[in-house]
Specification:
By secondary structure, the chain is mainly beta. The protein is built from 13 helices and 59 strands. β25 and β26 form a beta hairpin. α4 packs antiparallel against α11 (about 305-315) and α8 (about 235-250) runs antiparallel to α10 (about 285-295).
Length: about 950
């Protein structure tokens, strides 16, 4: 689509063409409003015809426009072309005057070819060999490229198409990196889902054959091996491309070359660079850095450009010695690792310390990717890619979600090439193994289950607390299972089925325990907890006596009998540390054994597994970008639009006039409440609480919509608070109880004078209570039986109370007359609403319909009154909710709300896109052995 000089696109007047590539044609244009020249990139015609891609591009371009860095060319806006034969879209960008890096390298090659420069190379030869830039010229350029990459990576943006042609050097020496993230921005929806081969996982290739197909592939000489194979990419792809550029700058020769793209890609995947052309005058440490940038296994590659910057910035170019620097507050974990090198005296030794660190020796390492048509997510509240190796090390179990939203357990033999689903495990999460490697335990909402590894009918071991997905389980040789049953104590139950009993008591100030793992002997177990010693790995026993703090960790810990270590995570690094099972003490320092773990989007998440024979498996790749997205759907589940930003939502509640939604967003050690406008042009989102170290959640609106009640734990004491919805005034404490594990408000009385809440204490389990909203009277029980009652919901007309009870052995929804203090008659009578399981009930605004969840579906039950008696109609399934939201992400929170008198629903929908465009895989290391410190 050639544009002629003088053509106007919005306020931009075409001046002259600048170039063309796989991502479109570029023109110099004049901004007639601001009287400045800009670069106008006209996107390909095939792009404009795809509405989904255009919408995706606009969303991504907004993110790219947020990059504000002196070494990144700015994006000014998007315009639609007009007055031409084909309507397309144009990206308005900063016009960077100067040469691109490929031009500088070409000039150096030309000088060498003319014999003007003769420089010895690594093999001792001299003469007419390709020659690149001098080290003095190359390093200032490299440092600025690294600064640009680091700034983008910190914002979660990966370039994907870094090459000399995308790097401009202004006449004052300033480097500008162009086209950040455009490969992702221009891809269609799902381009980064990592399901099977996808050409869009690789950036621009300007081959006529390829551009004729309308594909965005990759600039072949700079593609990473994972791009060449069409696999998901992350920031390590940019590290590879930077290594290629450093090699080319210093040698004048492309790192990988060939007659055509096929030859180049083959070289990238199979061969090594020609190190014989490396200049003998270049410092040895530079070669080491470049070599580690170009490791084909991205797990062993330098993981972050900040490492390269540190090693370059802290080298005295004259002496080659490391020079001390003050740590910058924004340096990453990799800076901290590299900083230990300051104790060494030479750059060679310093680089050897970091770059020469080896992963644990192993006979083989490989990746397990998602089976075709599925996605392995990176953790999350319903299990994600948490791998589970059988104790004999022969089988790997994990959960994956197909395109319909069905999540089930998949099983792969270690020596096989494919995984197979286990029928009947729909909705499964957090699998774990029997000690004989024959049976898999797992959880669905409200149940602990098991199923033979060879397939068969799943068996219910026991019920869980309402709305709970057990966060991990462990199984000993005496057929006792220890498992998580909510945000409190661990429980034990016979593997054959029976009554689950809690283990021990919580320590003062302790929040809860999760992700247990038996130690040898089957009496003591590791678990993740937050106690007096902080967040980390602890040990307790089946009799509940004694709690021992083991080590600080972001996750729980697993014992490796083959090596005598415990394995645990801190952030996204996997560590091993010697552990004495007799004294329960660690010895020596923890040693990093793997980097790039799936981000721990759940406190304590154990996203790794170790078998008895020493096989290690762990989740790798990007985590879900923010976890959940609020979304409107109709009664069929059809998408009606999204609300607000992505976040880790736990519980949502609509205002009575349905003009606002209040939701808890989990972050840090807790999270805050946010209010989002649902009508009007602004659609503002404002904060209601301001302390992410506390769990401020389960917010419910007053009937008049002017106040919000919510739960919060302050100083280890759970309580209920009220504040004005407009954030004015002061916070009011309604109730605080030292004896309770948690207190969760479920709703208000119709007249706003009382609150109904869930009160869980150690002795009596979960009960329903009520308290005056002015906090001037003591709380009194509403339902306080030996069974667990929860999710109390007063009908909008104030007459009825819906709730969940496990009195039949399963969670079911019931209705009874509301107590007089809540506006009802208090008369006797109780009516079942659900049959075959039900939880999380909510009322329609006219009190004529009840909704509840059961086995991944939302059901509706009509309500009628006959002679003053409540009558529940037949439950009708409305739609499958498993694909839309992650269930009851945290105990007793409401993950959906009812609007428009039951004609639409607001849900916290699971987000399937991944950070850096990379869904998780599972890395498997065979016969893992003791790491070298």
């Amino acid at each position: 689509m050639a544009l002629h000089t003088g053509l106007r696109i919005g306020p931009y007047e075409i001046v002259a063409p600048l170039g063309a590539g796989g991502m479109g044609e570029v023109y110099r244009a004049r901004d007639t409003n601001l009287n400045r020249d800009v670069a106008l990139k006209i996107l390909p015609e095939s792009f404009a015809a795809d509405g989904d891609r255009v919408a995706r591009f606009k969303r991504e371009a907004q993110v790219l426009a947020s990059l504000n860095h002196p070494n990144i060319a700015a994006i000014y806006g998007i315009e639609k072309t007009s007055g031409v034969d084909v309507i397309s879209h144009a990206l308005v960008m900063e016009l960077v005057e100067g040469d691109d890096l490929s031009t500088l390298i070409d000039r150096s090659r030309a000088l060498e070819t003319q014999g003007a420069l003769r420089t010895p190379h690594q093999n001792g030869a001299s003469g007419l060999q390709p020659r690149g830039l001098s080290v003095a010229d190359a390093l200032p350029i490299a440092r600025q490229i690294i600064d640009a990459l680091e700034a983008a990576h910190e914002q979660g943006i990966v370039h994907r198409d870094l090459k000399p042609q995308n790097i401009k050097i202004r006449h004052d020496g300033t480097v500008k990196v162009l086209d950040f993230g455009l490969a992702k921005a221009m891809g269609p929806a799902g381009a980064d889902d990592g399901i099977g081969f996808n050409a869009l996982n690789s950036p621009t290739m300007t081959s006529p054959a390829m551009t004729a197909m309308g594909l965005i592939l990759g600039t072949a000489p700079y593609m990473s091996p994972e791009q060449a194979r069409g696999r998901p990419v992350d920031k390590r792809t940019d590290v590879w491309a930077l290594g290629c550029i450093l090699f080319e700058m210093l040698t004048g020769k492309r790192t990988f070359d060939g007659e055509d793209a096929t030859d180049i890609i083959s070289a990238i995947v199979k061969t090594e660079p020609d190190w014989s052309v490396w200049p003998a005058t270049a410092p040895a440490y530079l070669k080491t850095i470049v070599m580690r940038c170009l490791v084909k296994d991205r797990k062993a590659r330098i993981p972050d450009v900040s490492v390269i910057r540190y090693l370059l910035d802290d080298v005295n170019s004259q002496t080659g010695a490391l020079v001390p620097v003050s740590p910058s507050p924004n340096r990453t974990l990799w800076w901290k690792l590299a900083a230990a090198a300051l104790t060494l005296t030479t750059v060679g030794a310093g680089v050897a310390w970091y770059l020469g660190r080896a992963l644990p020796p192993a006979s083989a390492q490989f990746l397990v990717n998602a089976p075709g048509g599925t996605t392995i997510t990176a953790g999350g509240f319903l299990g994600g890619s948490v791998p589970a190796l059988s104790p004999d090390g022969r089988l790997l179990a994990f959960t994956a979600i197909d395109r319909s939203g069905k999540r089930q357990i998949w099983l792969r033999a270690i020596d096989a090439l494919t995984a197979q689903p286990i029928a009947g495990t729909d909705g499964a999460a957090f699998p774990f193994w029997s000690p004989d490697s024959r049976t898999i335990g797992y959880s669905v909402v409200g149940k602990l289950m098991k199923v033979p590894a060879t397939g068969g009918v799943p068996f219910t071991i026991c019920t869980l607390n309402p709305g709970i997905v057990s966060r991990g389980g462990t199984w000993n040789s005496a057929d006792v299972i220890v498992f998580n049953n909510g945000p409190a104590l661990l429980y034990q139950v016979p593997a054959a089925g029976g009554t689950a009993t809690p283990i021990g008591t919580l320590l003062e100030g302790e929040v809860g325990r999760q992700f247990p793992s038996f130690l040898p002997g089957g009496r003591q177990f590791l678990y993740s907890g937050t106690g007096p010693a902080g967040t980390g790995a602890y040990v307790s026993s089946l009799d509940g006596t004694g709690v021992t703090s083991v080590t600080a960790a972001s996750s729980g810990a697993v014992y490796s009998a083959a090596t005598g270590h415990i394995v645990f995570a801190r952030q996204t690094t996997l560590f091993a540390q010697r552990f004495d099972v007799r004294t329960l003490e660690v010895t020596g320092d923890p040693v990093p054994i793997a980097e790039g773990l799936s981000a721990l989007d759940m406190p304590g998440l154990v996203s790794f597994s170790v078998s008895d024979d020493g096989t290690l498996a762990y989740g790798v790749g990007g985590a879900t970008s923010a976890g959940l997205q609020l979304a409107w759907v109709d009664r069929t589940g059809r998408d009606l639009g999204i609300v607000g930003p992505q976040a880790q939502y736990r519980g949502i509640n609509l205002s009575p006039n349905e003009r606002q939604v209040v939701a808890h967003r989990h972050e840090g050690e807790g999270g805050d409440l946010w209010v989002t406008d649902l009508v009007g042009e602004s659609r503002n989102t404002t904060r209601l609480t301001f302390d992410t170290t506390q769990e401020n959640g389960s917010a419910v609106w007053s009937p008049t919509g002017d106040r919000v009640a919510y739960s919060s734990v302050r100083g280890g004491l759970p309580g209920i608070y009220i504040r004005r919805a407009d954030n004015g005034g002061t916070e009011q404490l309604v109730l605080q109880e030292k004896a309770s594990r948690f207190i969760v408000p479920f709703g208000w009385s119709a007249n706003g004078t009382a609150l109904i809440f869930g009160n869980a204490v150690t002795d009596t389990g979960r009960d329903l209570w009520m308290v005056a909203s002015d906090g001037q009277s003591k709380a009194v029980p509403v339902l306080n039986s030996r069974f667990g009652e929860t999710y109390g919901q007063v009908s909008p007309d104030g007459r009825w109370l819906a709730y969940v009870s496990d009195e039949t052995g399963a969670n079911e929804v019931y209705v009874q007359h509301a107590p007089a203090a809540l506006g009802g008659s208090g008369a006797p009578g109780k009516w079942p609403v659900s049959s075959g399981g039900g939880t999380v009930p909510r009322w329609r605004a006219d009190s004529r319909e009840i909704y509840y969840l059961n086995e991944g579906k939302l059901l509706a039950v009509p309500v009628t009154l006959r002679d003053g008696t409540f009558v529940a109609g037949v439950a009708t399934p409305l739609f499958d909710v498993d694909r839309l939201f992650s269930g009851s992400a945290h105990s007793l929170y409401f993950p959906y709300a009812v609007a428009d008198n039951g004609r639409k629903f607001l849900l916290s929908r699971r987000v399937d896109t991944q950070t850096d465009g990379a869904p998780s895989s599972i890395a498997v290391v065979l016969h893992w052995r003791e790491p070298r410190s």
